[in-house]
Design a protein that fits this description.
- By secondary structure, the chain is α+β, with helices and mostly antiparallel strands.
- The protein has two domains: 235 residues, Thrombin, subunit H, CATH 2.40.10.120; 96 residues, Roll (Pdz3 Domain), CATH 2.30.42.10.
- Helices cover 17% and strands 38% of the residues.
- The chain is built from six helices and 22 strands.
- Strands 1-2-3-6-5-4 form a six-stranded antiparallel beta barrel. The chain has a six-stranded antiparallel β-barrel with strand order 8-9-10-13-12-11. Strands 15, 16, 17, 18, 19 and 20 form a six-stranded antiparallel β-sheet that branches.
- 38% of the residues are buried.
- The N terminus and C terminus are likely disordered.
C-alpha cells in the first residue's frame, strides 16, 4: 500500500491506521488560510479603485464642489478607475441616458462624472471624474482565463459599498443578449455572488488583475452570473475615449431566422441550413437601394455565410461602413447576389431580455 494514501471505503480491512484528526484539521486550516489570503490580498489591492455610481433623474445648478445636494437618485451601480486621470469603466445600462452622474470613491470622496462614451451593444460605458490621488486597476488577459480559476467580484450591491465575493470561473465563451438586441460574445460565467448594484464592477483574478466587467445575472437561478471579458471591454473603451461611440453597419431590413428547405441547401450547395427571412425593407435604406425585397432569405454577406441575425450583426462592424459588399440571398428558390453598401447605424432602441437581468 502506498504510504500516505487515505482509505475512505467503509468495507476496507487491514492494519492501516487512520490519519490523526489534528493533522487533517491543520491541513484544512492551511488550505483555508491560502484561500483567505488570496481573497484578502485582492480586496486590499483592488477595492480602492472601485467606485459607486449614482444616477440622478435631472440636472440642477448644484455646485460641482458639493454633489451631496443632488436631485433624487433613480439608480446606482459600480465602476472602476482604470487610468490615473480619472477614466472609469462601467456598464452602459448603469449610466445610459443619465442626466446626472455622481461617483463616490472608496475613501468617501464624491464627484460629478462626465459621460465620455456609451455602447449599449456591448454594455460598456466610460465616464470621467476630475480628482487627484486615484488608484487605477491592472488589466489581465481574459483570453488566458481557465475554467475553475479563482475569481473575486467587487462592487456595490444594493448600495453596500465595496462588497467582496469570491468564486470560480464556471464557463467561458458564453453569449448574452445586450439591451440593444445585439449578441455579446466571449462572456465569462462565474458563481461569484452578484446582485443588483454590482453592474460595472470588476471581476478579478487572484493576482489582482481585472479580467471581466460584472454585467448580469440569470433570475431566478442562483450562481449564474456573467461578466464581459476585459479584452472586449478595453477595445470598446479605447474607441469610446477616442470617438465617443462605436461605428456599426446598417442595412435597413427587418427579418427573422428561418430554416432553409433541404432540397435548396443541397441544390445550391449552401454551407448553412438557415437564413434571415426579410420581413420588410426600410425606405431609402442601403438594402432598398441594393434591391432587397420582402420575402428574400439572406444566406451570405461579404463572402461569409449567414445562418441568422446574429451572424449578420457580427459582420456589420466599423470596417464594413461605406464599403461595397456582396449580399447573397434566395429569391423564389433561386440564388442571387446583390451589391450593398452598409451605412453607419444610429443608436439602437433599448429592448430588455426576459431571461437576463442587468445588475443595475
Amino acid at each position: 500500500m502506498q504510504r500516505g494514501l487515505r482509505l475512505v471505503s467503509q468495507h476496507s480491512t487491514g492494519n492501516a491506521s487512520p490519519e490523526p484528526l489534528h493533522a487533517t484539521t491543520v491541513a484544512d486550516e492551511q488550505l483555508l488560510d491560502a484561500y483567505s489570503r488570496a481573497v484578502i490580498g485582492v480586496a486590499e489591492q483592488v477595492s480602492p479603485s472601485v467606485v459607486n455610481i449614482e444616477v440622478h433623474d435631472r440636472r440642477d445648478d448644484t455646485p460641482r464642489s458639493d454633489p451631496r445636494l443632488a436631485p433624487e437618485m433613480r439608480g446606482h451601480g459600480s465602476g472602476f478607475i482604470f487610468t490615473p486621470d480619472g477614466f472609469i469603466l462601467t456598464n452602459s445600462h448603469v449610466v445610459h441616458g443619465a442626466p446626472r452622474i455622481v461617483v463616490t470613491l472608496a475613501d468617501g470622496r464624491r464627484f460629478h462624472a462626465d459621460p465620455i462614451g456609451d455602447d449599449p451593444d456591448t454594455d460598456v460605458a466610460i465616464v470621467r471624474i476630475q480628482a487627484a490621488n486615484l488608484v487605477p486597476v491592472r488589466f489581465g488577459d481574459s483570453a488566458s482565463v481557465r475554467v475553475g480559476q479563482l475569481v473575486v467580484a467587487i462592487g456595490n450591491p444594493y448600495g453596500f459599498q465595496c462588497t467582496v465575493t469570491a468564486g470560480v470561473v464556471s464557463a467561458l465563451g458564453r453569449s448574452l443578449r445586450s439591451q440593444s438586441g445585439r449578441l455579446i460574445d466571449n462572456v465569462i460565467q462565474t458563481d461569484a455572488a452578484l446582485n443588483p448594484g454590482n453592474s460595472g464592477g470588476p471581476l478579478v483574478t487572484s493576482r489582482g488583475e481585472v479580467i471581466g466587467v460584472n454585467t448580469a445575472i440569470i433570475l431566478p437561478a442562483h450562481g449564474l452570473c456573467f461578466a464581459l471579458a476585459i479584452n472586449t471591454a478595453t477595445f470598446v473603451a479605447g474607441r469610446l475615449i477616442k470617438d465617443g461611440r462605436i461605428k456599426r453597419g446598417y442595412l435597413g431590413i427587418a427579418g427573422q431566422n428561418v430554416p432553409i428547405p433541404r432540397h435548396l441547401v443541397r441544390h445550391h450547395l449552401l454551407s448553412v441550413t438557415s437564413g434571415i427571412l426579410v420581413a420588410s425593407v426600410e425606405p431609402n435604406s442601403p438594402a432598398q437601394r441594393a434591391g432587397v425585397l420582402p420575402g428574400d432569405v439572406i444566406v451570405g454577406y461579404a463572402g461569409r455565410a449567414i445562418a441568422g441575425i446574429d451572424d449578420l450583426h457580427r459582420l456589420l462592424v466599423e470596417e464594413q461602413v461605406g464599403v461595397r459588399a456582396s449580399l447573397t440571398l434566395l429569391r423564389s428558390g433561386e440564388l442571387q447576389g446583390l451589391d450593398v453598401v452598409a451605412e453607419e447605424s444610429l443608436p439602437m432602441a433599448q429592448a430588455g431580455s426576459t431571461r437576463r437581468q442587468p445588475l443595475r
